[in-house]
Amino acid sequence: MNKNSIFIGIGGLIIGMIIGFFGANNLNKSVESESKSVVNPALPQVNNVVVRDQHSTSGAMMPEIAQTLDKAQNEPNNFEAQIQAGDLYLKIQNFTKALEFYETANKLKPDNYEIIVKLGNVYFDSQQYETAETWYAKALGIKPNDVGVRTDYGITFLERNDPARAIQEFQTSLKTDAKHEPTLYNLGIAYIKTGDSEQAKNIARQLEQINPQGELTARFKKILQ
Prior knowledge:
This protein is mainly α. It has helices at about 5, 10-25, 30-35, 60-75, 80-90, 95-110, 115-125, 130-140, 145-160, 165-175, 180-195, 195-210, 215-225. Helix 4 crosses helix 5 (about 80-90), helix 7 packs antiparallel against helix 8 (about 130-140) and helix 8 (about 130-140) packs antiparallel against helix 9.
């Protein structure tokens, strides 16, 4: 990756975009903290029903942003600097730039679990589900019991109209955490897509038992109705 090309004009447009984003976040910090849940409306969805765990990136003060990007440019072999720069671009949903930094980090540490998952998440968020599947599969080869990654892996199949395969992955996730609401919710959606209304109703009952007042419980019940 040509780092110099990435930073042409970075003192203006890109830093301005990022600072603007984080400035708004700082002003609305209390609102953001209250609104966080397992549902992220900005993520790709199937008919507005698919949900994922949050894959958040840490916030940053405005003076730190330029320093982070400058450090990533000047220290191409600094693994953490590449991740931090990628996180900043991911925050403003510049998936192309985020991938460039994450891919550089992956070259530095090919077996690092954190960056493998991040690559899967960015490809997912940019709706490149087949590529996301590849990275999630690699991650699961390292940590097969990561419920969040396994569920996201299953969603890549759901997004590509393969609910039967998605069901397999969701059921595997539930063997590790039987009360994981995003997994149950998406399993219910997969059952609906296969026309198995009885199993879908069973999922609704499970969600009701786990979290009667939960957002996913209410959302799934509404879909069934």
